[in-house]
User: What shape does this take?
Amino acid sequence: MGRSPCCEKNGLKKGPWTAEEDQKLIDYIQKNGYGNWRTLPKNAGLQRCGKSCRLRWTNYLRPDIKRGRFSFEEEETIIQLHSVLGNKWSAIAARLPGRTDNEIKNYWNTHIRKRLLRMGIDPVTHNPRLDLLDISTILSSSFYNQSNSNMFGVQPMVNPELLRLAASLLSSQRDQNPSFLHQNDQKHQFGQTLIQENHNLQLQSHDQTLIQEIPSCVPFSSDQSTQLMEPNVDQIPSSFSHFNPQNCQLNEWENNGMVLASSNLDNFIAMENYGFQSVVDPASNLTPNDFDFTSHLSNLSTPSSSPTPLNSNSNSTNYINGSSTEDEREISYCSNLFKYEYQEIFM
DNA sequence: AACACGGCCAACCGCCTGAAT
DNA sequence: CATTCAGGCGGTTGGCCGTGT
Assistant: This one.
């Protein structure tokens, strides 16, 4: 009649392993190998059940385990495999040498899953989240259209599908060439691809088949909007024709807005082409970390207000009037609804 | 300094499958 | 063939730790 029980449940230790227990397990396996987990604890002098020993060994003590943070390549591999295999952690782990299924599962649940959600991607289906699209429809048909949707004369469109495409484009570029982001010609090529894709999607939108119009600007009051100035495109040097992701920072604003800051003027052009609109130019040569966006945005309702630099050494100059150092200006963007992390897509 | 909170991760739990009896 | 269990797997938990208030 079947096998006998592997162990008595009573009297066996549970909980965290001590260094002494670890050493006993390591010594035993180094001397005798593993395989019969049923008898191993007793032979090794451990008050644990075989299952606990097996887990401890396979998830922690095994000598070929790679510790530490997951690399970008590993993360990309996990995402790609998960899109095919789903929650088959052991199958995914089999393709990542030195990583355990438990480690990958934990990393997925604590990092990757949340990141995909922030990017508007369903971590189960790996498709854009439909709930966001529903919200965007509501927003675009209600307060946004009633306020100042045309504050810059252009109704911007930001499409989750395009953002997803951007992420995958970047991933594939990175896969092919890890130093992609440090090469200007490739950055330029990537930017051009985005611009072309944005153009294509806008063309498709005329057929009302694919794209949904989504508000990309927080609905300021009319008083606030009058102070928002559209950057003078004529003052943008022609040399700034490609995207540079350096020194970017995303800040959430209130409940439904986000502000993108960059100290590089190239980003302005790329983001403009990408469908975001500029809201204000802090007009200084501060780095993003030196700038207090919350304070600055709250000052928009006060006509005489000016950006609030945290760095008193800044040499503040007005971008709109055009006299600052072009590539060190702060450009901020404001976009409604989307919580995509800019860095996650472009950096 | 004390407390609350949230992120992280090692470990456990429960289920499934296939092998042993 | 029926029963039982080892091993494997995915889901969940609980405690530690860092950070914010």
About this structure: The longest helix of chain A spans residues 184-206. Residues 178 and 244 of chain A are 16 Å apart (CA to CA).
